[in-house]
Amino acid sequence: MIRRLLVADRGEVARRVFATCRLVGIETVAVYSDVDTDAPHVIEADYAVHLPGNTPSATYLQTEALIAAAQRAGANAVHPGIGLLAEDPDFAQAVVDAGMIWAGPPPATLRTLADKIETKKLVAEAQVPVLPTFTDPEQVPGFPVLIKPAAGTGGHGIRVVRDASTLAEAIASTRREVGGEVFCEPYVGNARHIEVPILADAQGAVVPFGERECSVQRRYQKIIEESPSPAVDPGLREDLCRAAIIAVRALGYVGSGAVEFLLDGQGDFWFIELTPTLQADHAVTECVSGYDMVRLQLLVAEGGSVPMPGPPPIRGHAIEVRICAEDPAYAWLPAAGTLHRFAVPDIAGWFRPLPQPGLRLDAGVADGSVIGMHHDPMLAKLVAWAPSRQEAARMLASALARTHLHGVVSNRDLLVRVLRHHAFRAGDLDTGFLDRHAEVFAPLLSSVDAVRLSCLAAALAGAAARRAAAPVLNSLPSGWRNVPSISQTAVYDGPTGPVEVGYRMNRRGDLAGWWVRAVDPEELDLAGLGQAPVADEHPAVVVVSADAGRVVLNVQGIRMAVHVHRVGDVSYVDSPEGSVALREISRFPLPAPEAAESSLIAPLPGAVRRILVVPGQRVRAGELLLTLEAMKLEHPVHAPSAGVVSSLPVQPGAEVDTGELLAVLDPE
Fold first, then answer.
1. Where is the ATP-grasp domain positioned along the sequence (predicted)?
2. CA distances from 559 to 433, 506, 514, 545 (A)
3. Alpha carbon 149 to chain centroid distance?
């Protein structure tokens, strides 16, 4: 029996496992790196062991350190989480050799699954459909093809190659990213990604839990999942589940996992892989099945039998989104920094019993969490369950739109737009959804008047904060001045560039006039600012109330509450129209040093992985100069034009921050 369990992972997955452990009476042990000292998963555990260092290879992926931590803390079992360790046969064997219970598939099975080519061969021999596999580039019969790593999951290293001229470089890039061998298979366009979660025990029982639709992806990694799939009818569900059971038995699998398939528009499907982890999207399965998948996983790890005779019925519909610290508008670049506020409305908790509709949050962060560059950018998963798909999508979109997420760039607005998109609502999904519907990348706060009102609310909240800091001003109306012709103004760097906000209040404290207008950055210190524009076409607004954190406006007879959270010189503004971050600009800024036009700066924080040039080398426009590694991905830095590398101030392995100089390129 499991008495005390160490979770060899961090963030939301560690918290999720701990939540079940508390319910069933198992003591918990967390591990943490230097930067995770005050992380939520550390605080919630019964015991915690420090792993010196910050990088995953020195901490959360260090087998010897994790085994030693479990032994020091008195744990008699280890849960691998959902990362690389969950698929590592050597780590599983080390846990077993140390005399502890391993909450995962047997090491021998993991060794088989680590070879994707051998896995596909065994599954094909069991008469489950698979796509042809090519290990030699010369064998590829046609294009497009998909390049995939022979080991590992999670979408890392996958690339589409559409012609022979780019095949060699794509294979080399994938090998560098995953650190191992790769293979090719035909690329199936407009396909859906469907997976069947399963639970198998040592006695030979295998139970599928319906299916999950995982087709909305970026970089071949899922960002929205749901169960059941809108494309799967009862007959197809039976076929998929039958194929999943056959694959599981062919591979000798025991534990919790997911069998993944590609599904085309004609209803044909092909086995992709068996992922030997709990899966980040297990929450939607829990919502529609009513079972705690972590509890079942631990039950099987203790040698128990699957506690149900067959597949549980699917009840209602669940949709999950992955909220990630990344910028969809700029090639999904990961974002780092401090999460000043993270608040989702109307949350039920980790595990919500059915059949009551509601929201569930699985989060690895809280207010004040530091988002670094060493780990996956996912902050949290938000799940909605309702009797129907339309209700679940509407509920989830509304909750996301009202979420306060301050301090780091995220994909929140994109997720809201996808959930509200007519194609998503119609169930018209495949892995190319985001490529086809570029409109979902637009900011959620798209209305011109909505942006202007957010700027006005930020200025009013700023004035209220200054009054609160200087009590002598409290007797005067907000924005009131002794000279009526002079207005209260502030200049912000907004979503479309610098803007000036101006307003006048009368002696009764009523808004006498206001405006928001674009400002040329070179005019920020000119005396002309602060004067109301001749034509003021802004809607009529009445200020109902205004304090430092909340401004209530009556806009042409409609009342609207706007929340303002100021951190330093940045105001995070949340309203029913959406959210925006506004950085206040000094009217007389100090001159900043200008980087040379030929300077190449880091687009994100990361570690320099490869440098392919030397000072004095001539390069072509678009030539790859170096790569950065951040949040498990490789990011290339190309030459913007032809020239000569005159300076290269970084070395492989060096950690750089956003805006740091990487190279200087003198144009020819």
1. 115-302
2. 37, 21, 17, 11
3. 22
